[in-house]
Design goal:
CATH superfamily of the largest domain in chain A: Dihydroxyacetone kinase, domain 1
Largest sheet of chain B: 2 strands, antiparallel
CATH class of the largest domain in chain A: Alpha Beta
Order of helices and strands of chain A: HEEEEHEHEHHEEEHEHEEHEE
Radius of gyration of chain A: 19 Å
CATH topology of the largest domain in chain A: Rossmann fold
Low-confidence stretches of chain B: none
Radius of gyration of chain B: 16 Å
Oligomer: heterodimer
Number of helices of chain A: 8
Number of strands of chain A: 14
Helix content of chain B: 55-70%
Strand order of the largest sheet of chain A: 1-2-4-3-5-6
Largest interface: A-B, 38 and 35 residues
Shape of chain B: globular
Chain lengths: ~325, ~220
């Protein structure tokens, strides 16, 4: 099937999309150099900076979470590809320009981690105070080798809130790591997307199939099965997540559903309804929820289900004010 | 015969390698559709242009500094893992002293330094179906040939052959590293795009040095 997308020259996709994005939210964000998005009004001096990096084509991720109460900087790469390490180094230098320290949050994908590691080596040599945190919560991979999916948003949120309150770098890392350790994500896909620059489908999936364990870039997992109903899919995914996180009766959970780009809110509400019922039946408390498109993969159909074990402090930080273009709390 | 390379050799090596990768751009992207998102050819062409251009600069820096600059210029472009690996390798080559002219032993030390830099950045090893499947045997073959007194052109020919064999061998492997590792059996049957690029890189280096030898 021929690609049908409203694009101009595929070579300019990323600068054009970021220009549009920053123009649309000029009260909150602006471009700083090539493909780096920063807050329109910087965080007050002295507070810990939050920087993230990652490929483009996943809008509103990741730059949509730059704003007060969340990220300070997002370094965007090409479509589905990590940004160059030099840009990451420059972004961290800028973030630390007033003597501040920085928490670099990286989703566990080979290219992103390479860029992060190279950047860390360089900025540490310069004596900057920077810590890197990996999010790796996708349960479709083996322990110790898991991808980072939509869970990063929760990490941005709680660490961002802590930083905004004036927490130290160590304290921000601690809260970010606690969030990261207590979250799990599983993805499902029912239809592929086309790569906007190459025009090629990013994977093949039969008309009557779905695949559980899909990665952020459409890389397939191993759980290919007959297409199931919203209720059945919710149950399959929630069970795997609860088991992996070892959730027990009485615990408190955040549940986040992230549409992949072409799955409707209608469908997500159907899935969420079943999740809520199942949790009640299991006597697990659903304390916070979020539903929408956070990190997409073009017009891929499917969604990611993220659950996280919450404690009092994490809930408080989750509820703290935030004003990012695609994540706001009053 | 004084068997050394200078900046003009490096220029031709990178120009020839860039040419080979441009020629095979579509194939590289096609291979990347199996385990990745189908843009490896585009990424490599962009990265090779950085290297080629960096070598064109007129300055009197020693070869290792030229390689360091070139590697960092690749790290400056967006290209995911493959650009980061290629950039780290070339920048890492610059960790070894080379002067304005480098003999076979110094070039071997430089390539080995490049490989060491890669090992700091990635845990991937040969057998994982990644660029390392070509980088490791290529550098080892060059170092072994240099050790036994071969000329630079011959050593690079062995390196190119080793890289090619390494890349070909990835055809029967299952990806164990990077994005493709979740695909399991589906990745068997076609060579790794990254390893194929590295084989082309060394084939280009070798072709450039062969021309010199024949000239």
């Amino acid at each position: 099937m021929r690609m049908k997308k409203f694009i101009n020259d595929p070579k300019n996709l990323v600068p054009e999309l970021l220009e549009g994005f920053t123009l649309a939210f000029s009260d909150k964000v602006r471009l700083n150099g090539t493909n780096t998005v920063v807050r329109a009004t910087p965080k007050p001096a002295g507070k810990v900076r939050l920087v993230t990096l990652g490929g483009s084509g996943h809008e509103p991720g990741l730059s949509g979470f730059v704003g007060s109460g969340m990220l300070d900087v997002s370094v965007a790469g090409e479509i589905f590809a990590a940004p160059g390490a030099v840009k990451c180094i420059e972004a961290i230098r800028d973030a630390c320009a007033g003597g501040e320290s920085t928490l670099l949050i990286v989703l566990n994908h080979a290219g992103d981690v390479l860029a992060g590691n190279i950047a860390m080596q360089a900025v540490e040599r310069e004596g900057l105070k920077v810590r890197m945190l990996l999010t790796e919560e996708d349960i479709s991979g083996p322990q110790g080798d898991r991808r980072g999916l939509v869970g990063c948003v929760a990490v941005y949120k709680v660490a961002g809130a802590a930083a905004e309150k004036g927490a130290s770098l160590d304290a921000c890392v601690e809260v970010a790591q606690r969030m990261a350790n207590n979250m799990r994500t599983l993805a499902v896909a029912v239809r592929t997307a086309t790569h906007p620059a190459t025009g090629q489908p990013i994977f093949e999936l039969g008309d009557d199939e779905m695949e559980v364990g899909m990665g952020q870039h459409g890389e397939s997992g191993t759980g290919r099965m007959q297409l199931k109903s919203a209720d059945e899919t919710a149950e399959i995914m929630l069970d795997k997540l609860l088991q992996d996180l070892r959730v027990t009766e009485g615990e408190e959970l955040l549940v986040l559903l992230n549409g992949a780009g072409a799955t409707t809110l209608m469908e997500l509400y159907l899935v969420f309804r079943r999740v809520a019922h199942l949790l009640t039946a299991k006597r697990i408390r659903l304390v916070r929820s979020a539903i929408g498109e956070f990190i997409t993969t073009q017009e891929q159909a499917g969604f990611q289900m993220m659950i996280a074990r919450m404690d009092r402090e994490l809930i408080e930080l989750w509820d703290a004010p935030a004003q990012a273009p695609f994540f706001a709390k009053p | 015969m004084n068997d050394v390379i200078c900046i003009s050799d490096l220029r031709r090596m990178f120009a020839e390698a860039a040419k080979k990768i441009r020629q095979d751009q579509a194939i590289l992207s096609q291979l990347d559709c199996i385990g990745g998102d189908g843009d490896h050819g585009t990424t490599m062409v962009r990265a090779m242009k950085q290297l080629e251009d960096a070598m064109k600069d007129e300055n009197a820096k020693p070869l290792n500094a030229r390689l360091k600059d070139a590697g960092w210029s690749v790290l400056g472009v967006d290209g995911g893992a493959s650009s980061a690996i290629l950039g780290s390798f070339i920048a890492g080559m610059g960790d070894a002293e080379m002067g304005q002219e480098s003999d076979c032993g110094r070039l071997a030390a430089s390539l080995t330094a490049g490989l060491e830099a890669l090992r700091k950045q990635t845990r991937a090893i040969p057998g994982d179906k990644t660029m390392m499947d070509a980088f490791v045997p290529a550098v080892q073959a060059f170092a072994a040939a240099a050790n036994s007194g071969e000329s630079i052109a011959n050593a690079m020919e062995y390196a190119a052959e080793a890289a090619r064999r390494g890349a070909d061998a990835t055809k029967d492997m299952i990806a164990k590293y990077g994005r493709a590792r979740f695909l399991g059996e589906k990745t068997r049957g076609s060579p790794d795009a990254g390893a194929t690029s590295v084989a082309l890189l060394f084939a280009g280096f070798s072709a450039a040095l062969m021309q010199e030898k024949e000239a």
